[in-house]
Amino acid sequence: VHCVLHIARDSPRPDVIVSVLAITNTNTSDAINNFHFQAAVPKNMRIKLQNPSTSELPVYNPILPPQAITQILIVSNPNKVS
Questions:
Q1: 2-76 domain in CATH 2.60.40.10?
Q2: From the record, what ranges are coiled-coil (predicted)?
Q3: Are strands 16-24 and 46-49 parallel, antiparallel or unpaired?
Q4: Which end of the chain has the least Cβ crowding within 10 Å, N or C?
């Protein structure tokens, strides 16, 4: 599995970070079924995970562009504590 986290440059508020997670399957023999991403943040922050685009990834095919699961993560740090 290959995971890439794209962090947006712009945000709706200074205390919010919006990111897009993209997951691709790099395995040429096994598909991924029922994939579920979870994340945790410190108590002083909040996280909201939007629904993923799908939960299934076919096997990697070098001839075709890889399919990806995408999911939006919204993290807020209202107290701006590191």
A1: no
A2: none
A3: unpaired
A4: C
CA distance 20 to 54: 14
Mean pLDDT over residues 18-31, rounded? 94
Closest CA to 68 of 15, 30, 22, 19: 22
d(C-alpha 60, C-alpha 39), whole Å: 25
26-55: pLDDT as tens digits: 999 999 999 999 999 999 999 999 999 999
Q: Report the sign of the C-alpha dihedral through residues 23, 29, 32, 38, in that order.
A: negative
Please give the Cα distance from 76 to 16 (Å, whole number). 4
